[in-house]
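FORM 12-B: Structure-to-Sequence Request
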């Protein structure tokens, strides 16, 4: 994750995820996809989820055992995802148990199943963050996500969550059909009660791997990322929208990109052209973040609904074990550096010191 708000702001505000990005975590972030089931049918879905139960999903006893084992490992965050996690009948049981075991839990959801009661229960559990996936306003979102009314329902879910005191943010996937929606998404971030917006580079996997129209050209992706950086800088500099509205009451807002560490290179180049002092501070932060990624520990583990563990949610064709052994053994015994999993070209890149390499086969930062 590249926190543009931290890199670009002159006052270097503190954000909840700073410890993960710049500190020395003793265990990876764990993404737990508790179910394959989902009430939407998104074009880009990496898990090819649909509105049916997978008979291979782990049972309650296995899941509870996993949570207890995970609590002993003290991960910085457990991200409950899916499919759609709220579609799982034991979602609240697992959420509340995880919190009672002392695990820092966040949620990734499409937001459409979040009613007032669900929002109240999530807030009462002490969930640290809820990320809601939206890829445009109105029909743009609904067509991309496979159900009319999805935008309306997700927006309502966000309002319920915020009203009950949850920290809420937007999750946007930078697939080709979404790039034209960036301006409307910038406005949504102003209008909705959110404190964070994450832009995820599209990774062709699952259902998304079979649709070539989803993958943007390198030039389009660079333009989109440059637009996000420019908007983030404007927000950081003014703390206000262009029409004078105060940005979330003047509070800090996190604007992040995810999935391509070379976004940090683009942000650094952007600053070099405008403010050398800010550029140097950004270089120091990026170097610290890159150094964190070169140890033995992977930054993330992806645990599928059947208990299979992967290095991330986009590599489900390459399992590394099951939750019965990986959670306790992998991060102690592995000798693989995360750099070994990057594009081989990264090894010889002049920007490696502040980037650390990318999982993708393309790089937009050079």
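FORM 12-B RESPONSE
SEQUENCE OUT:
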């Amino acid at each position: 994750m590249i926190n543009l708000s931290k890199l670009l702001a002159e006052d270097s505000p503190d954000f909840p995820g700073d410890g993960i990005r710049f500190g020395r975590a003793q265990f990876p972030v764990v993404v737990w996809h508790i179910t394959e089931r989902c009430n939407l049918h998104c074009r880009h879905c990496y898990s090819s989820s649909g509105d049916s139960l997978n008979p291979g999903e782990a049972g309650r006893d296995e899941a509870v055992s996993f949570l207890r084992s995970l609590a002993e490992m003290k991960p910085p965050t457990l991200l409950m995802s899916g499919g759609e996690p709220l579609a799982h009948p034991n979602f609240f049981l697992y959420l509340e148990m995880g919190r009672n075991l002392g695990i820092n839990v966040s949620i990734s959801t499409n937001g459409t199943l979040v009613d007032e009661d669900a929002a109240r229960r999530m807030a009462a559990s002490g969930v640290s963050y809820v990320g809601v996936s939206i890829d445009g306003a109105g029909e743009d979102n609904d067509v991309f996500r496979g159900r009319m009314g999805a935008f309306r329902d997700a927006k309502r879910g966000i309002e319920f969550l915020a009203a009950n005191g949850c920290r809420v943010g937007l999750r946007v996937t930078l697939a080709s059909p979404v790039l034209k929606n960036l301006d409307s998404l910038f406005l949504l971030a102003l209008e909705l009660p959110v404190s964070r917006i994450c832009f995820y580079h599209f990774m062709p996997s699952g259902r998304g791997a079979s649709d070539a129209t989803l993958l943007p050209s390198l030039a389009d992706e660079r333009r989109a990322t440059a637009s996000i950086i420019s908007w983030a800088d404007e927000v950081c500099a003014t703390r206000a929208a262009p029409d004078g509205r105060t940005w979330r009451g003047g509070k800090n807002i996190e604007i992040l990109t995810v999935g391509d560490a070379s976004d940090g290179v683009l942000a650094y180049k952007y600053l070099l052209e405008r403010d050398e002092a800010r550029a140097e501070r950004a270089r120091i932060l990026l170097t610290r973040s890159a150094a964190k990624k070169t140890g033995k520990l992977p930054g993330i583990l992806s645990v599928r609904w059947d208990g299979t563990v992967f290095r991330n949610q986009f590599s489900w064709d390459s399992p590394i074990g099951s939750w019965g052994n990986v959670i306790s053994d992998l991060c102690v015994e592995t000798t693989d550096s995360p750099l070994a999993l990057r594009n081989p070209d990264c090894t010889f890149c002049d920007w490696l010191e502040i980037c650390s390499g990318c999982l993708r086969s393309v790089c937009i930062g050079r």
